[in-house]
From TrEMBL:
Keyword Isomerase appears in the UniProt entry: no
Organism listed in the record: Olsenella porci
Signal peptide: none
Protein name: Epoxyqueuosine reductase QueH
Catalytic activity: epoxyqueuosine(34) in tRNA + AH2 = queuosine(34) in tRNA + A + H2O
Function: Catalyzes the conversion of epoxyqueuosine (oQ) to queuosine (Q), which is a hypermodified base found in the wobble positions of tRNA(Asp), tRNA(Asn), tRNA(His) and tRNA(Tyr).
GO BP, sorted A to Z: tRNA queuosine(34) biosynthetic process
Keyword Disulfide bond belongs to the record: yes
Family per record: Belongs to the QueH family.
């Protein structure tokens, strides 16, 4: 038997279940989905975030913003950490395989919740960060939503990423510097160290008067983003 449809919202907008990875990444998707005529209910299910204290901190930030600023309902769903270790962790530093499995675990749970609560539409805030694997996440959302009989709403929110940085800073929201899992924390630490090394090398070249080398290092820094 199919679940009853989520009731129409008092705003007359169409209900949508929005999986959220964190508070800062939720700002623009909520804003732009509302402009499109949807009314998001956020679903929190992120057993990928390690350590536990970091998970709780990000959830706390999201809950405060949803309640005090955005007026969005939040469903705190499953936190299958054992499942994450079984299905995601074995991929370790194979980023494509690891993130695909991680998206699948979280979006499957979001789709289960969407069905349970009678939503027809499902989306995710993972489509805002340029650091996510956009096409992989798109494929996973399509597959999990369709397997659950739901309609995926996939939008490229990445052009709004700078706006989300600005807005979340203005709200004094905590902004994490790694995606969530222990592998991403290690990768981000390496990237930060490499960026520091490149900046030092550029300064050294400038001090030595080697403008060609300095310019080429600066170009590498820019290309890294
Ligand atoms: S980098 Fe992010 S999306 Fe990828 S496995 Fe780690 S927590 Fe999941």
């Amino acid at each position: 038997m199919s679940a009853p449809l989520a009731p129409a919202t008092p705003t007359g907008r169409t209900p949508i279940l929005l999986h959220a990875c964190c508070g800062p990444c939720s700002l623009e998707p909520v804003k732009y989905l509302r402009l499109e005529g949807f009314e998001p209910t956020i679903c929190w299910t992120n057993p990928n975030i390690q350590p536990r204290e970091e998970h709780d901190r990000r959830l706390g930030v999201l809950l405060s913003w949803a309640r005090d600023v955005a007026g969005v309902d939040v469903i705190v769903a499953g936190d299958d950490r054992d499942g994450w270790e079984r299905s995601v962790a074995p991929a370790a530093f194979d980023r494509e395989r690891r993130c695909r499995a991680c998206y699948a675990l979280r979006l499957s749970e979001a789709c289960r919740v969407a069905r349970e609560h009678g939503f027809e539409f499902v989306s995710t805030t993972l489509a805002v960060s340029p650091y996510q694997l956009f096409d992989t996440c798109h494929e996973v959302l399509l597959a999990t939503a369709r397997a659950s009989g739901l309609t995926p709403v996939w939008r490229d929110f990445r052009p709004h990423y700078p706006e989300s940085v600005e807005d979340s800073r203005a709200l004094h929201m905590y902004r994490q510097n790694y995606c969530g899992c222990r592998f991403s924390a290690a990768e981000a630490a390496v990237e930060r160290q490499e960026a520091r090394d490149l900046r030092k090398a550029a300064h050294a070249a400038e001090r030595a008067g080697d403008t060609v080398l300095a310019a080429s290092i600066r170009a590498r820094i820019v290309a890294r983003g």
